[in-house]
């Protein structure tokens, strides 16, 4: 057995069994204890496991408080040459099976400051809020929560400041259904935050985001997650991180043969430089309008916008249309998936719920049409809950789908 193969199997064993002893691993692989100790030491140096007395244990929750020192002989370009192209095999599952798959998400973590108001204020107007809350958010964190609740095995990567909200982020992610995460910290920037108004009239929202540390992810920090990315079926990214980090992780995923889903939010023309790396793009109506130059007001304009976006180099376009469902454009064919009936309480994070659930379904090998239907049902449940990170479960989604057999 080759050295790298043995180390990969050690990680697989730990992932399944949480911990292992040196004696146990030496017998398993028919090598000396000293060889296993060396393997564990190398893997620990790569932050892939945690050494303990007599063995090792799985490392799934990492708070990286110190800056990663770049390797003098390794940058993204060098790593890409070393990797070469790798193809991944996927299998189609029946619609009744539990959604499973490996997903890596590079994204943002924000502290959400949410104020409920009777209506949105006009310019220069002050309104008394009905109430306010402070909680976890960020498109990346919300989508990681959604994909995890939909049954995917998610590794989430984000960055906060070294302030009072860093431990808040760590506790939230540790207590969640997210399988594993890497939480980097910035010495200079503070943890990102978002100020959100939620209207009681219709559950719609207005959001202002300060990205903070989300915009400071380094090339070395992207290189450091290459092992996690290698294990993934799908990479999901948004645009709340710095563009060079997003571009680099997409380049890395492409070299590894990992499918890439891009949620182009908040929209920026910067995505044009790496749009061709994405396999699937998931804009909402506003983002699709900005991206295509065609204002999306109805189904016809949505179809025209989808065509224009596809012409820019992306294979599959899925435009979310709020209460009108979603439009799928693939292989020059359109499919409209209507929304399921829902009593909207809070639409904050509805798009994140959709994208996270879609990613989980695609990672499992589900066909794209079913994945969009599943994500639409998932989002219909999410808007009936308060809070952007308050996501439904896979079982609840399947129950809602069963009640709408004609959907």
Automatic annotation (TrEMBL):
> Where is this protein chiefly located?
cytoplasm
PROSITE patterns linked to this entry: HTH_DEOR_2, PFKB_KINASES_2
EC number in record: 2.7.1.15
Keyword Metal-binding in record: yes
Residues bound to K(+) are 346, 348, 382, 385, 387
Family annotation (SMART domains): HTH_DEOR
Q: Which domain of life is it from?
A: Bacteria
Entry's Pfam families?
HTH_DeoR (PF08220), PfkB (PF00294)
> Which pathway does the database say it acts in?
Carbohydrate metabolism; D-ribose degradation; D-ribose 5-phosphate from beta-D-ribopyranose: step 2/2
Q: How is the cofactor bound?
A: Requires a divalent cation, most likely magnesium in vivo, as an electrophilic catalyst to aid phosphoryl group transfer. It is the chelate of the metal and the nucleotide that is the actual substrate.
Extent of the signal sequence: none
Its assembly, as annotated, is:
Homodimer.
Name under which the protein is recorded: Ribokinase
Which classification does the entry list for the species?
A: Bacteria, Pseudomonadati, Pseudomonadota, Gammaproteobacteria, Enterobacterales
- State the encoding gene: rbsK
